[in-house]
Every structure is written in C-alpha cells, then in structure tokens.
Amino acid sequence: MRGALGGPGVLLRRLREVMAASISPQERLDRLVVLIAGNLVAEVCSVYVLREDGSLELYATEGLNREAVHLTTMRAGEGLVGLIASEAEPLALSDAQAHPAFSYRPETGEEVYRSFLGVPILRGGAVMGVLVIQNRASRIYSEEEIETLQTTAMIMAEMIAAGGLKSLAAPGASIGLDRPIHGVGVSLADGVGLGHAVLHEPRVAITNLIAENPTAEVNRLEAAIGEMRASIDELIERGDVAHTGEHRDVLETFRMFAHDQGWLRRMREVVLTGLTAEAAVERVQSDTRARMLRQTDPYLRERLHDLDDLANRLLRTLTGKANGVAREDLPENAILVARSMGPAALLDYDRARLRGVLLEEGGPASHIAIVARALGIPAVGEVVNATALVQPGDAIIVDGQAGEVQIRPQPDVENAYKDKARLRARKQKQYEKLKELPAVTRDGVGITLQINAGLIIDMPNIAATAASGIGLFRTELQFMVAQHMPTTAEQQALYAAVLDVAGERPVTFRTLDIGGDKVLPYMERIEEENPALGWRAIRIGLDKPRLLRAQLRAMLRAGAGRNLKIMLPMVATTEEFRRARVILRREQAMLEKQGVAPPRDLRVGVMVEVPSLLFELQEIAREADFLSIGTNDLMQFLFAADRENKRVADRFDPLSVGALRALRRIVDAAEEARCPVTVCGEMGGRPLETMALIGLGYRAFSMSAASIGPVKAMLRALDAGKLRERLDWMLASPEGTINLRPQLAAFASEFKVPV
Description:
Blueprint: H1 7-20, H2 25-39, E1 44-50, E2 55-62, E3 73-75, H3 79-87, E4 91-93, E5 115-123, E6 126-135, H4 143-161, E7 181-184, E8 186-189, E9 192-199, H5 214-238, H6 248-258, H7 261-272, H8 277-292, H9 298-319, E10 334-338, H10 343-347, E11 354-359, H11 367-375, E12 379-381, H12 386-389, E13 395-399, E14 404-407, H13 411-434, E15 448-453, H14 460-465, E16 470-474, H15 476-481, H16 488-502, E17 507-510, H17 538-543, H18 545-558, E18 563-568, H19 574-593, E19 601-608, H20 617-623, E20 626-629, H21 631-638, H22 646-649, H23 657-673, E21 677-679, H24 687-696, E22 700-703, H25 705-716, H26 720-732, H27 741-750
Parallel strand pairs: 9-10, 10-11, 11-12, 15-16, 15-22, 16-17, 17-18, 18-19, 19-20, 20-21
Antiparallel strand pairs: 1-2, 1-6, 2-3, 4-5, 5-6, 7-14, 8-12, 9-13, 13-14
Helix pairs in contact: 1-2, 5-6, 5-7, 5-9, 6-9, 7-8, 8-9, 13-25, 16-18, 18-19, 20-23, 24-25, 24-26
C-alpha cells in the first residue's frame, strides 16, 4: 500500500507555491493536478467543477485525454463522479468498472484505469465539484491518501469560492458558485422583499489555510478548545444564561459536544495533514455538514446545529473575530440570512434598511415570525442550508406570501418579482382607500376589525389601518425579547404606553402565554413528552401565582381609571377561569386599599383554544365577560395535528365540516349567553376563512395589520345573508363534501367577492 510521496505537508507547501504564482487560472489548475498525481503516485488526477445547471464539467486533468477538458460533462448522480457529488462522500474503489454507477466516457480514455478515488470539493457543506485520482492497477487507497485528497479539495474549494475559475466557464455554463437557486420553505411573514444578502452571523473568513508548523497548529487548536470549554463551563456554573440569551439546556448540550472525542480527534488529524487550526475546523465542519444535511432524522439535524455553533465559537476564538454583524453597518435593501434568530436580535436591526429575512429554522408560529409580521418584514423559514448557499452581497428575493426564495435570480425572474412587488404596492394603495370606509357587508352587517399586537412598535398600525382596537395583545413578547424577567414596573410601563396610544379604542391584554414552544431564555426549561399539551399559559400562572399576580397587578395599575380587558389563555375548564379570576380580584382589592384607582370598566375573558371548553360553553359563556377564539391551537388540538409538523400539518383544513361545526357551537353559545366573541387566530385574518366565519355568525375579528385591507375588501363585497343560507345548507347536507373550501371559493367567485 503506497502513501503520498513526501507526506501531505510537502504537497500542501507546493500547492501554495502554485496558488501564489502569477499564471492563468487554467495553467494553475493544470499544475495542481500534476502535483497531486505525482504526490499520490497516481496516473490520473482530474478536477470536475459544478456548473450552474447542476452538471459537472471536467476542468483539468493529468493522465486523461486533455482534449476532453471543458467538453466532458455529466449530471449530478451520473457516473462515479456524479455519485460523489450527490452524496457528498469520498468513494474509493479497487475495481471502478465493476461498480454499478460506473459510466464510460470514450473521449477521456479512462477505460484503462481500474482503481478510483474521488472526494467532493466542499465549502460550508455545499458541493462545488469533485477531485479524482485513478490508477491502472487494482489498488486499495490508504486512509492517508484519502485524507490528503480531501485536504487538497478544500484548497480548491477556496479557490473556486474566490472566483478563481470564473474566467474558464463557457458562455451559459457558469460555475455552480454563481448559479441561481430556487429555495422552498414556509411563509413566516407576508410580502415580497428584494435586496442583497447580509449574514446575521458572518462566516469567519480563513485567509491562511496551510500550516508552517503543524505541531504549533495542534497547540493552537488545543488552546482554543480549552478556552471554549472553559467559557461554556463558566456560563453554566455561574447560571447567568440570561446575559447570553442561551438557555441552560442548550449550554449543557454544547458542553457535551465540546467534550466529544470523535469530533475533536478529527480536527487534530486534519491539522496534522498540513492545515492551520482554523482551516481544520472549517474542513471537518464542512464534511460533517455535508453528511448530516442528507439525514432525515430530525435529531441528527438538530445536532448539526449544535456542531455548527461549536465550530463557529472555535473559529472566532482562533481568529480573534467577534460574532455578529455591526447593526449600524447594515446596507440599504438588506436581506438578513441566518440559521435562526431570536426576536430581540431582529429588533436590533434598522427597520428602514431591512427588506426581508431568510432563515434555516423557524415556523409560522415561532417568535421571530411574530416579530417579523409586526414589523411588516417579508420572511421565509425552513430553507435547508440557506447560510451555506448564500454569499454576502448575493441578490436575494424573499417571497413571504409563497414561502419561497430566489438566490442570485436570473434577470427575468427578478423582473417578474419586481412586477409582483409593484402589483402588491398598488393593492395596498387600494386598501388604503378603504381605510376610512366602514367595515360593513353589502347587506348592512357591521363587522369589527381589530389588530393583533405584542410590542410598542405595533401601535402605529392602529391609526395606519383605522382598526377598531387591539383584539389580542401578546404580553409574552415583552418577556421574550428581554434579557431578564421584566419587573412589575417595566410591565406596567408597557401596558400604560399601549393604552395611551390606543386612546378610547379597546385593548385586550392576554396574560403570559409561555411554555410549549415559547421558552424564555432565563427560565428553567421543563422537558415534556408533548410540550404543546403540557405545562403552559394559565397552567403556569395558576401553579406559580406570584408570576400571574405580578402581571395582573401591572395591568390593573396601568388601567387605573380606564377601560381594561384581560384575557386568560389555554383555559381548559370553567374552574380554571374561576381560580384565575379569584387571584385577579384579590390583586384589585389590594391595590384599592393602597389608594390605586380601579379600572373604569374591567372585563375578564377567556381564549377558547382547548377543545374541552366546547363541552362547557354554556357555563364559560355565563362566567366570562367575553370569549376570544384562538383558532391556531384550537384547530391543531381538534385534529391532533401539530401545525409545525410538515408530515401532518396539511392533513386537516379549518374549512372542513367538522371544524366549522365546532366553531358554530361556540358562536351560538356566546350569542345565547349574550357574551361577546372575537376570532383572533390566523384563521380570522385570511379573507376566505373570514368569509366563512361571517357566514357562521362571527362579527368581530383581530388579525395582523397587513390583513385588515384584504379582509375589509372582502366583507364590503359580501352579502352575509346569502352566505349564511348557503353555508347552512353545506353544513346540513349529509352527502356534502368534508372539505368546504372549494365550495366556499366557488361562492366567492359567483358573487365576485375578492378572497
């Protein structure tokens, strides 16, 4: 078994000399393949580069027919080279022609070569090409040779990323680094944003790849690992996780991976091949990312994020570079790209310069999605490997309506989206014309339209939309963006400011709705098998009455002498509501003893989102001052389908017969008890769904500010009486379809109702 001549260190030093030489890109590639072949005792060395159309093109070769360079191409997945590109894994064969994926290309003259070793050219986990060596005789390639070829491939990846091969691409065959990418994710916030990429956590640029002294580099790596471990240990032992915004459980996971011997051993081994410590970290993490991105197990994908975070910490320690982008340096028309972000981080950026947000993580109900909607920033989440696909400054289009992104779009695609953005702007102007018109149906039925809010930045939307008030103020957002538990005084100041801006318009404050997916960074995380059905919202408030009392006290003080509406979330029984109301009355009595004026009018209501309340509707409608329908949770609980789980989220429709019958039960019981009822979930902000709810008898809705215009345009064209008759027939018909969405859409089309 033969190894590399002179070792990997000799090869890397000679490669560096070639990289620094003042020669053409093609000559540089030609010299590199000669060097690699000679060092690894191979008769063939070839470089294939990924083109923008997804095919692989032979860019240089030593040993094969030189006339095949820039002529031989293959699709990803085609042949052994295509197999390596699709799987992003090395492939070593002693008899290549016996492999089922072998594809013979007569123009290359490779039929005489039996042994084959190929490795992917990776950067950030993304495949940029394939590097291959071959031999005539049957040969088993050593681990050292595979490692050396992978290290060499990293050097080539940096050369490709720096644009060193752009001039070699034929017209219409640009290299994959610049290829347009169409990404599909999920919509987080509506709108279309066109701009240029800004990485929320910029990749650390590694300028020095090849080590002068491998032993010294190992020592640097060991020191950085020790420093990283010490910083994590200090955070956990000190308990000051609020300062970093990271939860203790996350840090515990970091600590576990920071001591993972397999991951650390791989980095040490790569350093000994001749790379610097930071290049070794980048190389190992790129290999790991490429492999784990092809896993379907969500646990493994989550572990990839942990390793990404650790690798970034190590790189920043080794290079001495701080994390994050300077908020004041945000360019015009910025599209923010991140693996994940907290709501507070988004609020740090200059809204006037931000055109969109692109995330690898985050669903429609995530904290960042709520804040993005409040800011009116188009956002798309769950775009796989987004941070590796994007280069800073790349042109990006974020389509928050369709949940799609275009990275480095072609001119015709960009022009189409510009037209879409202009059309959307014209529609918004049309909606603005409706602002001062009453929200009344064609047959004279008045509808109350309010907005959802959660931060003081939402408040200008009341005047901008001429909304009747705030039907849902999510108080937990103040807790989520803070670095510590907000004091009673801080809470009171926010609630008072909201009431000041609202004036005589009503505001409904929802008490703290945390737990489940809403975990505060400074509170202990409780591990539960099913957190959505676990310890959350009012259940936490009743079990930790000091927390609930402090918030109610802040609301009562802010509402002194004013109208005040307080809503309790996640109430499952009438008894829970009574217990919470007792706590409220005690706080009110205590404040009155202290001379604090009571609210002029205090109303206490319930968010109906737990199906058990459907069987206590008469009781809860008599006890509560008002009801609000949280359709997001109500629907997922009714259908036992997690709305964040792609496998089941589309298996139910809120416009199905079962869902609409349940919603009718609520509005009928509220009407019988003369208890006001409002829909404040997402269902009430979509025109077709809102139309159906009006047909059921609902007359009050709270939604995102952006939904007010489309919903008002719909209802002003609607005859509620005709819809009621049609919907009654649909729900009563025993032979009707289960999903009424097509029939409701047909009704809207028939009567020219814009939905």
